[in-house]
Write a structure and sequence with these properties.
Layout lengths: L1 H8 L3 E8 L4 E9 L11 E8 L3 E2 L2 H9 L6 E3 L15 E6 L1 E2 L6 E10 L10 E7 L2 E5 L11 E2 L17 E3 L1 E3 L3 E7 L6 H26 L4
Parallel strand pairs: 1-13
Antiparallel strand pairs: 1-2, 2-8, 3-6, 3-10, 4-8, 5-6, 7-8, 9-14, 10-12, 11-12
Amino acid sequence: CGILDVQATCQDAIVTQQLLQEGFHRDLLMKVELGIMEEDIGGCTVAARIRLPPGIYVDPYELASLYQHNLTKEVLISDAVDVEAPEYLATDLVVLTYMKPDPQCSRCFRAALPVHGRYHRPAENNGEALVVLKSPEVLICCCDSRVSTECWKPSEVEAPCSGRNDYPCQWYSIKHKPVYEELILQVPVGLRQHNSLVCVVTLLSTVLCSSVILAAVCKYGHFS
């Protein structure tokens, strides 16, 4: 009977994701509504663990700048990020982003993560590549709270509970219901039939710019 009572009080969190802007540079807006009472989450930290596919990445230098100016919470990245790599040479990337309490909802947390589309191989007919972004894993850490953890599954994530300390805490994975199972990011790509035109224009531009630089050096340069 006791087990049934615990299961009855365990409510799934609700997760929503939204991609803002268009093109290569987007903002991933995430919102989590917890299924626990407001008074139980006072000392808890909520984070989203996101697996980014090869077609999309985050810029660690951009994130560090935003965090330094207090425009976002801290973001932890699993591996080094090659921001110049095309989609077909990149790998999946796991990102852990800490979420802020939502002032409009007492049980809600939110985070905005700037993401960028990678260059893809040229396509045959369609000028867009589709990148599928799955729903994130919702994590909670209550290092300073005595809230019951019976509804949550222990996670193997090793990260500080917040930016106030540098030692790992016990994180728990929250069962959640995504409003959308996945998001589709549309990335502009070139067309293969334009390869010759692009090569010719690139070559002419390179020759023209090189000629201008060489002419400027010859006219204004000082040679001993």
